[in-house]
């Protein structure tokens, strides 16, 4: 389990980010005498913000996907018109 955890950079990032967040909150509560109710409200609002960003990103990705289907893929837009080909390019294809 541990070697798999060490190889996955996203799991390491999630773990270290969570660890540093917990350490920051703990230091704020213990060192600066922050009220626990303020920390609780801060964490709840942070989770709501992150969830909102994830949901809005999901919907924007769906919109982008829907709009890009009508136009075709990127390489399809770059294809040349067959009538625009020159004699040299036709000779190269043979």
List the helices and strands and how they pair.
Elements: H1 2-7, H2 9-31, H3 36-71, H4 74-78, H5 87-93
Which consecutive residue ranges, at least 5 long each, have pLDDT under 50? none
User: Number of DSSP strands?
Assistant: 0
Major sheet size, sense and barrel closure:
none
Number of alpha- plus pi-helical segments: 5
Shape annotation? flat
Query: Looking at the chains present, what oligomeric state does this protein adopt?
Result: single chain
Range of helix content: over 70%
Strand content: under 5%
Averaged pLDDT = 78
Helix- and strand-based class?
mainly alpha
| Secondary-structure element pattern, one letter each | HHHHH
Would you mind describing this structure in some detail?
- This protein has helices spanning about 1-5, 10-30, 35-70, 75-80, 85-94.
- The protein is an all-alpha fold and about 90 residues long.
- The chain is flat, with a radius of gyration of 26 Å.
- About 80% of the residues lie in helices and about 0% in strands.
- The model has no long low-confidence stretch (mean pLDDT about 80).
- The protein has 2 domains: about 1-30; about 35-70.
Summarize the structure.
The protein has 94 residues and is mostly helical. 82% of the residues lie in helices and 0% in strands.
Which terms summarize this structure?
about 90 residues; mainly alpha; about 80% helix
